[in-house]
Known about the structure:
- With 310 residues, this protein is an alpha/beta fold.
- The protein contains 12 helices and 9 strands.
- The protein is 40% helix and 18% strand.
- The longest helix has 21 residues, at 225-245.
- The mean pLDDT is 91.
Amino acid sequence: MIDGIPRISVLVITYNQEDVIGRAIESLLSQKDYIFEICISDDCSKDKTWEILNYYSSQYPGLFVLNRNDPNVGIFENIERTWEMPTGDIVYQLSGDDECGYGWFQKVIDSIKELGLDYKNEMFCVYGDYMTVDLKGRKITHKNNLVTKDGGGLSLAIRGIVCNRSTCYSIKVLNRFFKVSQGRSHIAESAQDRQLQLFSEKNYYIPYVGNIYHTGIGVSTRIANDIIFEERKQINQYLINSFADRGFAPSKADLRYFVYEDAFLDFLHKKTLKNAFKLIYRWLLSYDKTIGMRSLNLSFMISHFIKLFQ
């Protein structure tokens, strides 16, 4: 690692990914001069994932910090296990079936220097763009350029306008995170993810791809649709309850957006005319005047309405 730069800790989760974990690791090793440590938590894989991790660790002494859960604890508790592993200044998270954007860490460090950030003490997050790649190799770049510097991040993230993929944030933000996992249940997803926006006091944006997300191969793609529906109906309420336990509460506009999301799920589950009207009505009511038209996320809605009625 280059001397005199912020120490970047990369957090990686993996489970039964012997075919793709090497791709994720190689995307990091190509930038190892800018990485302080690669912390990987394997959720008791049944294939050769753990052997692959140990091979890389032996090839790069001191770079890897490995953890193996026994027994398997599920994706969200495994994520929380990685929160206990880093000792650097800056945190970046990666799934074992995805890739880090080439040259991303140099861009982050250059930006931190240019901005003059006190990376050891400030509570900040640096956002980049992320790319999705589907099973046919089609690529789409998604921008996080609408993130606001001062506040507003939580409402934007709740609406899917900004995304945690391709973010680097100070470890002081991570140290504020609280555990919300319930074993394998997906209802903890939003309560876990939205803590980044809850605790980041400053946000910055780099127009550069920092994460490459390979769609259609993750664990969630193999979960039955009825299970996804039932759990997704509980995600927002679980966030509300989890945040309330810590003295935080979403805004009234955010609560209206949660009602819209429930209407969206109802329509996906049962495409009736009544549910369609309810969906549109709840969508309009989710408008948040503090962040303007962005709160309606028009491009997202148009693309999804086209897919829904095809």
